[in-house]
Amino acid sequence: MESSDARYRLKLAEGFLAEARAQAEHRLYRAAVDAAQLSIENSIKAVVALFRPVPKVHELVEMIDDLLAGTDFSAEERERLSRLQDVAEVMGFETHIRTDYGDELQGITPWELYDDTEAAQALGYAEQARQIALSIVEGRLTH
């Protein structure tokens, strides 16, 4: 298990979450969603880092699939990872692209895509993901 990379990823997740909160407070909703997505990504990568090198990809669902297939987890950890996977489905690679480029086919910029509702939802997902990752990482490192 690589505890230093896992802890580093948790610090990144917390930093991006704090940034997302600040951006939302300043009504910079696109930036808030972007930072929340990065927080989620790093929360997931913190868990991955416990078991293998972290890939330089944004495909979060596949990372969790690979981890579940090749690692022995308790029922409680599997439930938490399933919840992380649900969050990754909503806030994964597509969100990463949309916060940077918008909807190019429709000609909608990233700033037009997001409002306070989306930002609040993204913050909620980021908080959940960080808490889940923290519980798995700390649980594994203390046992």
In short:
With about 140 residues, this protein is mainly alpha-helical. Helix content is about 80%, strand content about 0%. The chain has one domain (about 5-140): Nucleotidyltransferases  domain 2 (Four Helix Bundle (Hemerythrin (Met), subunit A), Up-down Bundle).
Describe this structure in words.
With 143 residues, this protein is mainly alpha-helical. The chain has one domain (3-142): Nucleotidyltransferases  domain 2 (Four Helix Bundle (Hemerythrin (Met), subunit A), Up-down Bundle). Helix content is 78%, strand content 0%. It has 7 helices and no strands. The chain has helices spanning 3-25, 29-49, 60-70, 75-91, 93-101, 110-113, 116-142. Helix 1 runs antiparallel to helix 2, helix 1 runs antiparallel to helix 7 and helix 4 runs antiparallel to helix 7 (116-142). The model has no long low-confidence stretch (mean pLDDT 92).
What tags apply to this protein structure?
mainly alpha, 7 helices, about 140 residues, Four Helix Bundle (Hemerythrin (Met), subunit A)
Rounded mean pLDDT score: 92
The name of the CATH topology is: Four Helix Bundle (Hemerythrin (Met), subunit A)
Going by CATH, the homologous superfamily would be: Nucleotidyltransferases  domain 2
Helix content percent band? over 70%
N-to-C SSE string, H for helix and E for strand: HHHHHHH
CA radius of gyration is 15 Å
CATH architecture type: Up-down Bundle
Question: What is the tally of helical segments?
Answer: 7
| Uncertain spans | none
Q: How would a textbook summarize the main sheet? A: none
Total DSSP E strands: 0
Classification by helices and strands: mainly alpha
Shape: globular
Tell me the β content: under 5%
